[in-house]
Amino acid sequence: MLNFLTRSPRFLVIGISATMFVVLAMFNLGSWFFLKRMERHLDAELSQRLTSVARLSARLLESERIADFYDRGDVLSVKVFAEPTLNSVRESVALQNIFLIDRDLRALASTGQLFTLGQEISYLRDDSLLIARAWSGETVASAVHTIEDSRFKTAYAPVRNALREVSMVVVIEANAAFFEIIDFFLRTIIIGGLISFAVLIVFGVLLSVAIGLFLRTEASLRRAERLASMGQMAATVAHEIRNPLGIIKSTADVLKSRYDKKDQPDELFEFIPSEVRRLNRLVGDFLAFARDRELKLERTDLTQTVQEALTMIRREHPKNAETIQFDGHAAALSVSHDGDAMIQVLLNLLMNSLEATEGRRAIRVSLSPTEDRGKKMALLEVADEGPGLPAAPEKVFEPFFTTKARGSGLGLAVCKQIVERHRGKIIAKSEKGKGTTMRIYLPME
Questions:
Q1: Which domain holds residue 386?
Q2: Tell me, what's the pLDDT at 25?
Q3: Backbone torsion region of residue 42, taken as left when φ is above 0, otherwise alpha when ψ lies between -120 and 50, otherwise beta
Q4: What is the CATH number of the domain that holds 89?
Q5: What is the distance, to the nearest Å, from the Cα of residue 395 to the centroid of all Cα atoms in its chain?
Q6: pTM of the complete model
Q7: pLDDT-based confidence at residue 330 (cuts at 50, 70, 90)
C-alpha cells in the first residue's frame, strides 16, 4: 500500500473521490427515483379514489332523478335537491368540493355555497378535454392543479337522465397538499446532492493535501535515515582518507623542496597538492551533507556576513573575483543566522558562478528586505551572466546531481539544507544563454 501511495498518490485520490462520487450519485438518484415512483403511485391512488367517488355521486344523483329537473328547465330544483346529496358525500369521504356543471361550465349546485346558481367556473377550461370525455360518458381524473399556492386534483363523472343521456357532469375536487411534501423532499435531495458533492470536492482536496504531507513526511524520514547512515559512513571514510591524504601532501611538499628546480619549475609538483585539496573538498562536502551540524543562530547584520564571504572569495581568487559586484542595503539587515554556515552557502554559489562565467562576465550579489506571504524576509541574490543551468532549476538541488566532471553534486544540496534549517528557502531561476539567479529568503522576524 505504501509503495502504491508513493507511486501514484494522484490516482489514489482520484479513485477514492470517484468512488465516493458514484456512491453519492447512486444514493441521490435512488432517492429521487423512489420519491418519483411514490408520487406516481399516490397520484394513481388518488385518481382511482376520486373517480370512484365521482361515479358514486353520479349514481346517487341519478337515483334521485336530478337530471330530469334539468331537462325540464327547472335548475332551481336541481340546486335544492342536489346540494344535500353533494354535502353528504363530501362529509363522508372528506373531500374539498363537489359541484354540478352544465355544458357551458356554469354551476348548477355546489357544496358549502361555493358557487352561485348559473356562475361560470372559468378555471375548468384547463380541463376542457377531460370534461369532453365526461360528456361522452367516461369518468376521468385530471392531473394535479396549482391555483394560488393550493394543490388539488379533480375528477369528472357524467350524470344521466331517464333516457341514459348525459345531462350534467358532477365535479369532485380533493386536496393534494401531500404532493408538496414530496416536492420538498425532492428539493432536499437536490440541495443535499449539491452540498454533498461540494463536501466531496473539499474532501478530495484535503485528502490530496494529507497524502502529500504523508509522502513528504515519509520522504523526510527516509532522508533522515539515509543521512544517518551516510553520516556514519562519511565519518569513517573521512578519517580513513584524510590521514593518507595528509601524508601524501607532506611527502609531495618534501619532494618538491628536494628536487624542484627554481630556475626550471616542474608542474608535476603542483599536481599532487592540487588533487589532494580537491579530495579534501569532496570529503568535506560528504561530511557537510551527511551530518547535521548544530547551527549557532545569532541575530546579527546579514550584510556583514555577505561582505566577509566576498572578502574570502576575492582573497582566494583575486583575478576572477574582480567581476563580482555587491549591491548591499543601506541599513543593517538584522537576521537570525549562523555566520559560518551562510558564508559556506555564499562561497559555494559564488564558486559556481565563477566557473559558469569563467571569470569573464559580471556576477551581481544583492541584499535587500522584502516580503513573502506577508512575512518580512531578507532576500539574498547571486546572479551571473553564464550559459544557464543545464537542467530544471529544482533538480540542481538534488543530492549527487552534477554536470561537472570533477564535482560531487553535493554543493547545492548542502546549500539548500543549510538555508532550510534557517527556516528559509532557496530558489533557482535560469534561462538558457542568459544566466542564472539564486535567490535566498531568510526570515527577519
A1: 296-443
A2: 77
A3: alpha
A4: 3.30.450.20
A5: 27
A6: 0.46
A7: low
